[in-house]
Protein 1
Amino acid sequence: MKKKIFLVAGARPNFMKIAPLMRQFKKGKDKFQVLLVHTGQHYDYEMSKIFFKNLHIPDPDIYLQIGSASHALQTAKIMIAFEKVVLKEKPDLIMVVGDVNSTLACSLVAAKLNIKVAHVEAGLRSFDLRMPEEVNRMLTDKLSDYLFVSEESGVKNIKDEGISAKKVHFVGNVMIDTLLYYMNAIEKSTILEEKNLISKKYCVMTLHRPGNVDCKKTLAQIYAILKEVTKSIAIVYPLHPRTKKMIKKHTFLKKFNALKNLSMIAPLGYINFIKLVKESHFVITDSGGIQEETAVLNIPCLTIRENTERPITLTNGTNYLVGRNREQIIKKIKLILSGKAKKSKHLNLWDGMTAKRIVKIIEQTI
Ligand code: UD1
C-alpha cells in the first residue's frame, strides 16, 4: 500500500521549499502518493503562480483559496477548509514547511485528527514572540512527529523546549536544494539587461515585516535610511504587496518615488530575483530566507531586524543584524564598499541533498 502524503504550501517562502520535496517524492512514486495542497494564503501571480512555473512545481491537487485576512480569521479559514479535505482523503502524513500561518493551521488540524505531522525547517527561534512566525514555529514544532532541522541551533532549541530528541533530524536546508538546482537557469536570467543594471553597481532591498512597514514611525525611519544609502549606491526594491499597501496608506509614496537612486519594482519570480541578488553588491532585507540565500551566494546582507532565527548566517554566513539603526547601517555599508565584508564559511549540510535525506527518513520510518 502506498503511503498518502499531503505536502502543504501557502505563501511565497514555502514554494522554494516544496519544489525539491515534490521532485524527490516523485522518484519514490511506487511508495508514496503525494497530494500538493495550496492554501491560497498568497494568490497574486507574482506571489504564487510564477514560483510554480519557475520551479516546475505541478499544479496543486487541492487549492483552498483562502486569501488574505487577519491572523485569526486566516488561520481559522485554513483550518476549516483543510479539515474537510483531510477527513475525505485520510492522509498518512501531513508535511508542512516554514513558519507561515498555513504551516500552523494545517499542523493543528492534523494533530487534532491524530495524523502525523512532519515540519520542514523546524527548530528555528528568534525568541521574539511579537513575530507571528515565532508563534507559528513554536506551536508547529510542538505538534510535529518529524522535526527536520536546517541548522544546528535548531537541534538545541528543540531540546531546550523538552521535545523528544527521537523526533529530531538535522537534515540541512531544503531551500538551498532549490538554489543549487536552478543555478544554471539563474545564470541565464536577463533581468539585469531588462532593468538596465550593471553587476555590483547596485544593492537589492526587500522589506515586508509588519514590525518594519506597518506603522508610520518605522516607515519614516526606513525612508531616512534609504535617503542616506541612495547617496552612495542605487537601490533596487521589489515591493511586497503588504509594503506597497502600507507605503500608500501612510502617504509615503511621493517621498519614496522622489528618491533618485531608488527603483521600486514589482515582486520578481524566483529565477530573476536570485539573479538580481547574485549580481548585487549587497542586500538589505528583513526576510528570513534571503539571509540564508545570501550566505550561500556570498553576498553581504544587512538585516533590518534586532534578531534572527537563523544564527548560522551571522557566524558562518554574510549576515549583519543592523536593526533600523542608521549609523550602524552606514558603518556596515562603508565596510562592504571597501571590500572588507565577512565571507561565508562552511554551512553544514546546505549541499543540495536535503530533500533526499528527508524523503529517505520518511520512507524508513513511516
Ligand atoms: C507572509 C508570512 C511571512 C512571510 C511572508 C512572505 C505569515 C504570518 N506571514 O506575510 O512569514 O515572510 O508571507 O511574503 O504567514 N497580499 C496581496 N497578494 C498576495 C498576498 C498578500 O496583495 O498574494 C497582501 C494583502 O493585502 C495582505 C498582505 O499582503 O493583507 C499581507 O499578506 P499575508 O499573507 O497576511 O502576510 P505577509 O505579509 O505576506
Note: The CA atoms of residues 225 and 326 lie 6 Å apart.
Protein 2
Amino acid sequence: MSSPAVTPAPAPAPVLLGRTALVTGAASGIGAACALRLAAAGARVRALDRDAGGLADLTARAHSLPGAVEAEVLDLTDLDAAERAAAGTDVLVNNAGIQLVRPIEDFPPDTFHTMLTVMLEAPFRLIRGALPGMYGRGWGRIVNISSVHGLRASAYKSAYVTAKHGLEGLSKVTALEGAPHGVTSNCVSPGYVRTPLVEKQLADQAAAHSLPVERVLNDVLLAGSAVKRLVEPEEVAEAVAYLCGPYAMSVTGTTMVLDGGWTAR
Ligand code: NAD
C-alpha cells in the first residue's frame, strides 16, 4: 500500500541547541528518523544501536544538520552498559525494538525473554541511568516509543504486547516521579509504520493467518485502522520532537497515539 507523501517540513526551530539526546535503535526506521529530527532541532544526538553499519549510514545523512549525530554501538541486552550509557543525557528516546509473530504455544521462551529485556528492562535501566543527571539539571525529556500494541492486543504477539503494555506503565511512573524535577515522560504509540520491522513481519503474519503475503497489509495489519495507510517514520519523529519542545511542558504521563483511529473503536 502506498501512503500519500509526507510534505517536507520547514527547517525546525533550534529548540534543542545545547541539549544532548540519546536515541536507542537509531540505525533504522523510527529511531533513525528521531535522531535526524532531534539533530535538526539542534541537539547533539547519541545514536545507539547494535547495528554498526546502519549507524554509519545514519551519521552520513546528518552532516548538514544544526546538531550532530554520533554513533554508539551497543547491544541493549547488556543492561549494565545500557544504564551507564544513559548518564548525562537530557533527552532519552527509548525506541529499540524487535518483533516475533507466533502463537503462544510455539513462542520460544528465550525469545520472549530477550524481547522483554530489550523492550522493557533496557528502557527501565536507561531511564534509571538518565534520571540523576536530569534531576540535577532540572530538565529532562523521556519519550518511549510504544505502539498501538501498548494499548490493544493482537493474537500471536505475546512478547511484544506484554513489553509495550509494560512500557506504557513504566512511562507513567517515570512521569509522576520526574515531575517535581522538570522531567516529563510520555509514550508515542503508532499503528503500523513503514520500517524494516514491519516489512520483516509480513511473511510471519501470512503464515500465522494462513494468508498470501499480499493480503496481509490490508486484511491483517490495517484491519483495525480507519485510515488505511502506513504511518511514515518522520511522522513519529515529529511527535517525539513536539514532546521535547517548548510547548509540551505540561504534557506528561500520557500517550500520543498515531494509529489511524484504531483505538477509537
Ligand atoms: P526497525 O527494525 O527498523 O529498527 C529497530 C532498531 O532497533 C534496529 O536498528 C535494531 O538494530 C535495533 N535493535 C534491536 N535490538 C537491539 C538491541 N538488543 N540492542 C541495540 N539495538 C537493537 O524497527 P522500527 O519499526 O523502526 O521500530 C522502532 C520502535 O518502534 C520499536 O520499539 C517498535 O516496537 C516501535 N513501533 C514500530 C511500529 C512499526 O510499525 N514499525 C509500530 C509501532 C511501534
Note: The chain has a mean pLDDT of 95.
